[in-house]
Design brief:
One of its GO terms (biological process) is carbohydrate metabolic process. This is Beta-galactosidase-like. InterPro entries: B-gal_1-like, BetaGal1-like_ABD1, BetaGal_gal-bd, Galactose-bd-like_sf, GH, Gly_Hdrlase_35_cat, Glycoside_Hdrlase_35. It is a single chain. The chain has ten helices and 32 strands. The protein is α+β, with helices and mostly antiparallel strands and 558 residues long. The strands form eight sheets. The chain has a seven-stranded parallel beta sheet. The longest helix is centred in the N-terminal third of the chain and has 18 residues. The two termini are 35 Å apart.
């Protein structure tokens, strides 16, 4: 088994470490050991993984001129602090110490990064040796090109490559031998599928192609780690993004068309791969465990609680930040989620006038409301201008959503929020009130289901447009996995029993449903659902809990 360790998940604030609950890394490794799994640990500090900022903490960007993934002193200071906490937790679990960790990766695909800083890689190598000792196998992973292997490999660490079934395995391993003349040939990321972007198609790779590629590798006597073997989910705000001529955020589902699905169920691809592996190694006897039961819990009716601007006093109890010009999420130390930027309309605009993002500074989507009326959306790289009207003194509210930081390439220092000025007509908008919104913290305390902080469920309002909060409840007799379908809802975020199950955007797709693991549900108490719809809710406020996923808009079930 191969497992990343995301730095930003375990150190959400400088010096604040989390190894409990979902962050219980040592417990996870011990469970793997109990089941007989050997583990390859990939602790970065950069991991990519289609994870926000490649696992690097966004608070690093508080240093405006920091050079990430380099020997920049500010960056190395933060890395040293992190590794001094993480690596001693791994050492007792190394294979040579009686544990199940057989190797540890240093950095990740560093040859794909522009810096090519050998001093940085040497620093990491010596730091890993300091904390883990001389006996553990340290290795690097890079793409199968000369440039990537040249910048990503380092003497003293075993070099490996990554590639998929469409690539020429012999050519890749011949190149690897130039940088790793001895020892095993390893493909440390053999791609069994691929990731999905919002607005793209669902990626697939046929079982025949993936199994044939695996057979080719094994017939060469090489070693392979499959990526992904089981799909996953980008719960909360943890998805990353790519930048390929434009910003491309990654979906909540990380099913990856993997041999085991997002819900952990076997697929045809798993059986095809198992058949190949059985020609080289013994495989467990007996039937494959069946898929776990999935449940259709039926229809849940929601109720509108109110517009997001109705709750600024409790979502931002410390009050707004007053600033002449917009500030970023990082300036406000709000690293995920949403911030609201508020100013006054400076003059009468009876005729349609452009509200513009002239420098492409919306990171990543901005939901515009004037005097309480939803006006439209500005979107990074896509929508740079909308036309608006209003009266002098009206509140102009801009709710900005961080859609996930870039996780690969040269643009991982991906600031969020309004990173440049907006203009109304030809005038720069100034004099902002900026509200960092603690939505997750409040929902974790069962808001708005508990009538605390003097918030009372509103009567059904007329308007379903613009950023607003909706809630509902449902009962279950069992607590099995299910899938949430938001038919005719537009875009937003969903929490169930306080757990953020991720972003939905069925209008853009390809993903339609959200995976709901059964362990967050209750069969003893009412289950609470909270929806933050950002654009437009349907006239009839219904959502559906169904027994199968729809991860492509082309699925006839949509």
């Amino acid at each position: 088994m191969s497992s990343y360790v995301p730095w930003n998940f375990h150190e959400p604030e400088p010096g604040m470490f989390n190894f409990e609950g979902d962050g219980a890394l040592e417990h996870f490794l011990d469970l793997a050991n109990e089941t007989g799994l050997l583990v390859i640990v990939r602790p970065g500090p950069y991991i990519c993984s289609e994870w926000d900022m490649g696992g690097l903490p966004a608070w690093l960007l508080n240093k405006k001129d920091i050079v990430l993934r380099s020997s920049d002193p500010d960056y190395l200071s933060a890395v040293n602090s992190w590794l001094s906490v993480l690596l001693p937790r791994l050492r007792p679990r190394l294979y040579n110490n009686g544990g199940n960790i057989i190797s540890v990766q240093v950095e990740n695909e560093y040859g794909s990064y522009h810096a090519c800083d050998y001093s940085y890689m040497r620093h990491l190598f010596h730091t890993f040796r300091l904390y883990l000792g001389d006996d553990v196998v340290l290795f690097t992973t890079d793409g199968n090109t000369d440039r990537e292997l040249k910048c990503g490999s380092l003497q003293g660490m075993h070099a490996t490559v990554d590639f998929g079934p469409a690539d020429d395995a012999k050519k890749a391993f011949d190149l690897l031998r130039r940088y790793q003349p001895t020892g095993p040939l390893v493909n440390s990321e053999y791609y069994t599928g691929w990731l999905d972007y919002w607005g793209g198609n669902h990626s697939t790779a046929s079982p025949q192609m993936v199994s044939h590629g695996l057979q080719t590798i094994l017939e060469m006597g090489a070693n392979v780690n499959m990526y992904m073997f089981e799909g996953g989910t980008n719960f909360g705000y943890w998805n990353g993004a790519d930048y390929k001529e434009q910003y491309k955020p990654i979906t909540t589902s990380y099913d990856y068309d993997a041999p085991l699905t997002e819900a952990g169920d076997p697929t045809e691809k798993l059986f095809a791969l198992r058949s190949v592996i059985s020609q080289f190694l013994p495989v467990p006897e007996g039937p494959m465990p069946p898929p776990t039961p999935k449940y259709d819990y039926g229809v849940v009716k929601l109720q509108k609680v109110g517009d997001i601007t109705d709750f600024l006093d409790i979502l931002c109890p410390g009050g707004p930040i007053v600033t002449r010009y917009p500030i970023t999420f990082e300036d406000a130390k709000q690293y995920f989620g949403f911030m609201l930027y508020r100013t006054r309309v400076p003059w009468e605009i009876p005729d349609m006038t452009s509200l513009s993002d002239p420098f492409n500074g919306v990171r990543d989507r901005a939901y515009i409301t004037i005097d309480g009326s939803f006006t439209g959306v500005l979107e990074r790289d896509h929508v740079r201008m909308i036309n608006v009207t209003g009266s002098a003194g009206d509140w102009l509210d801009i709710l900005v959503e961080n859609m996930g930081r870039i996780n690969f390439g040269s643009f991982v220092n991906d600031l969020k929020g309004l990173v440049s000025n907006l203009t109304l007509g030809v005038d720069i908008l100034t004099d902002w009130l900026v509200y960092p919104l603690n939505i997750d913290g409040l929902i974790a305390e069962n808001w708005p289901h508990m009538h605390r902080n003097h918030i009372i469920m509103a009567a059904q309002p007329e308007s379903h447009t613009g950023p607003a909060v909706y809630t509902g409840t449902f009962k279950t007799a069992v607590t099995g996995d299910t899938f949430l379908k938001l038919f005719k809802w537009t875009k937003g975020q969903v929490w169930i029993n306080g757990f953020n199950i991720g972003r939905y955007w069925p209008d853009r797709g390809p993903q339609v449903t959200l995976y709901v693991p059964g362990n967050i549900l209750s069969n003893r108490e009412m289950n609470n659902i909270t929806v933050l719809e950002l654009e437009s809710a349907p006239e009839i406020l219904l959502i559906f809990l169904i027994d199968r996923p729809i991860i492509s808009k082309n699925d006839h079930g949509f």
